[in-house]
Automatic annotation (TrEMBL):
One Gene Ontology term of the molecular function aspect: ATP binding
InterPro entries named among the record's database cross-references: AAA+_ATPase (IPR003593), ABC_ATPase_HisP-typ (IPR030679), ABC_transporter-like_ATP-bd (IPR003439), ABC_transporter-like_CS (IPR017871), MetN_ABC_transporter-like (IPR050086), P-loop_NTPase (IPR027417)
Keyword line: ATP-binding, Nucleotide-binding, Transport
Annotated SUPFAM superfamilies: P-loop containing nucleoside triphosphate hydrolases
Family per record: Belongs to the ABC transporter superfamily.
The protein, known as: Amino acid ABC transporter ATP-binding protein
Keyword Nucleotide-binding: yes
Annotated ranges, domain ABC transporter: 4-229
Length: 229
């Protein structure tokens, strides 16, 4: 069973045709990078996967559940699919620790102690254990993005979506964020990554999908071959 499956999906914003006949299957543990010009529908594709947008027609299955089916529990789908945004979206008035543990406590019903223990492991993973009591504005953009990744992982998602996670960062911070993403990939996470970082796409991606004007123009499992073209 695919983790994510688009069958003949169309998406309109009013009259604007944003996704055109999308067919895409992503297996558990696959890392798919999505590239393409601005406005080609990459972000819309991600937002459909985690239910921030609905598709106009066709079928979209996440973890086997059809998002258009009333019996599908969208809260479970949103819990199963994490998303990391370009602009981090951390809670400014909460510490790093509170940012990471809030979702697990409220949604996963973890105790404070358990959620904090798991948060420390995640902070270690992203290399920021010493920042547990800092507030977001005391961190660099790159550090904030690594916290945002830790926060997503704390919800124990089955898949993680990244929407241009390094585009808002100063160049010297991009490498640290990409390294964390690489570690997450190596741990077997299913990942869909919209990015301009061709090095990441080539080194970490199992597949590369090229979108233009709302369509998937190319979908390559042979990532090395794609870059030799
Ligand atoms: P990309 O991520 O590739 O830059 P997007 O998915 O953000 O592309 O946008 C694809 C197209 O859909 C763009 O032309 C954009 O203006 C349009 N679009 C995106 N979101 C909306 C929206 N909420 N309402 C209307 N048009 C939108
Ligand atoms: P697990 O790893 O235990 O399968 P899930 O969150 O996928 O964890 O599933 C927990 C339960 O919820 C299972 O019984 C599963 O069938 C059901 N479930 C999972 N996702 C959805 C969904 N989006 N809509 C409805 N039921 C779901």
């Amino acid at each position: 069973m695919s983790m994510i499956e688009f069958n003949n999906v169309e998406k309109y914003y009013g009259k604007f045709h944003a996704l055109k006949n999308i067919n895409l299957k992503i297996d558990q543990g696959e890392v798919v990078t999505i590239i393409g010009p601005s406005g080609s529908g990459k972000s819309t594709l991600l937002r459909c996967i985690n239910g921030l947008e609905t598709v106009t027609s066709g079928q979209l299955l996440i973890n086997g559940y059809d998002l258009a089916d009333k019996k599908t529990d969208m809260n479970k789908t949103r819990k199963n699919v994490g998303m990391v945004f370009q602009h981090f979206n951390l809670y400014a008035n909460k510490t790093v620790m509170q940012n990471i543990t809030l979702g697990p406590q409220v949604v996963l019903k973890q105790s404070k102690a358990q959620s904090e223990e798991e948060a420390h492991k995640l902070l270690e993973l992203v290399g920021l254990n010493e920042k547990a009591n800092s507030f977001p504005d005391q961190l660099s953009g790159g550090q904030q993005q690594r916290i945002a990744i830790a926060r997503s992982l704390a919800m124990k998602p089955k898949a993680l979506l990244f929407d241009e996670p390094t585009s808002a960062l100063d160049p010297e911070m991009i490498g640290d964020v990409l390294n964390v993403m690489k570690t997450v990939a190596e741990q077997g996470m299913t990942m869909v990554v919209v990015t301009h970082e061709m090095g990441f796409a080539q080194e970490v991606g199992d597949r590369i999908v090229f979108m233009a004007d709302g369509s998937i123009l190319e979908d390559h499992s042979d990532v090395a071959g794609f870059f030799k073209q």
